[in-house]
Amino acid sequence: MASQEKRRRDRTLDPEAVARFDRLGAQWWDLDGPMRALHKFNPVRVAYLRELLCRHFLLDGKPRDWRSPGALQGLTILDIGCGAGILSEPLAWLGARVTAIDPARRNIEAAKDHAGKTNLAIDYRCVAAGELAAEGVVFDVVLAMEVVEHVRNVERFLGEVAAMVRPGGMLVAATLNRTLKSFAFAILGAEYVLRWVPRGTHNWTQFVAPRELAKALRDAGLRIKDETGVVYDPLTGKWRLSHDMDINYIMAACRPL
């Protein structure tokens, strides 16, 4: 109860967003359910992270083989706002030691249940990022994927998150740019016309421009390593990396040694 009360007082958490995702419960893993858009988006996230991390974290002085089934073997990864583990599970299959956190209790219950069916060893915790950061833990990689646009104080949140990146480690954030294109696509298109996600999932005023995200990461002591846009291709029905960062984009930053 004390932990739940602390979460309610957290200055970065958006209680409405937490409650909204908490209500999804087991629906997270329904490929035709309310999170179907995230399932379609997931392959490009996993592919990007796989190649990025294999280039950054050397093995025997050389880049890792991103094609290897155990490409991320031994890396410690924190997945913040993990939901029911849609991203956490593929990273664990690639050999990473994954800790995955979410302040929504039903999300963590669904994540544990799904991982248990395949005996995946993922350390799921119902905890906010700030609570975990207060423990002084650090990881090779910290992920804030599709999370930044749901917090109330981006700078404070990223400061807490960056504190959990070890020297030489990396933080990767994926979010939505605050442009007219993103309003048309992510709000009007995805929520009202195509109904890819439930209405009210996003608040356009909370979207973050790349320059704002980059500044917050630098202020947290990190150096920008990479950035890329992610766009939807209606001809193939798939997402792909792009130079276009007007809507969805990913940014990676490193903590200097």
Concise structural overview:
This protein is of the alpha/beta class and 257 residues long. The protein has a single domain (2-174, 207-254), classed as 3-Layer(aba) Sandwich (Rossmann fold). Helix content is 36%, strand content 21%.
Q: Can you tell me about this structure?
A:
This protein is of the alpha/beta class. It has one domain: Rossmann fold (3-Layer(aba) Sandwich). Helix content is 36%, strand content 21%. It has 9 helices and 8 strands. An 8-stranded mixed sheet has the order 3-2-1-4-5-8-6-7. Helix 5 links the parallel strand 2 and strand 3. Helix 7 packs across helix 9. It is globular. The mean pLDDT is 90.
Q: Structural class, from secondary structure content?
A: alpha/beta
- Largest sheet composition: 8 strands, mixed
Lateral strand order in the biggest sheet: 3-2-1-4-5-8-6-7
Q: Which architecture does the CATH hierarchy give at level 2?
A: 3-Layer(aba) Sandwich
Q: What would the principal axes of the Cα set say about the shape? A: globular
Write the layout of secondary structure elements.
Layout: H1 2-9, H2 15-22, H3 36-56, E1 76-80, H4 88-93, E2 97-101, H5 105-116, E3 123-125, H6 129-133, E4 139-145, H7 154-162, E5 165-176, H8 180-193, H9 210-219, E6 223-233, E7 238-242, E8 248-254
Parallel strand pairs: 1-2, 1-4, 2-3, 4-5
Antiparallel strand pairs: 5-8, 6-7, 6-8
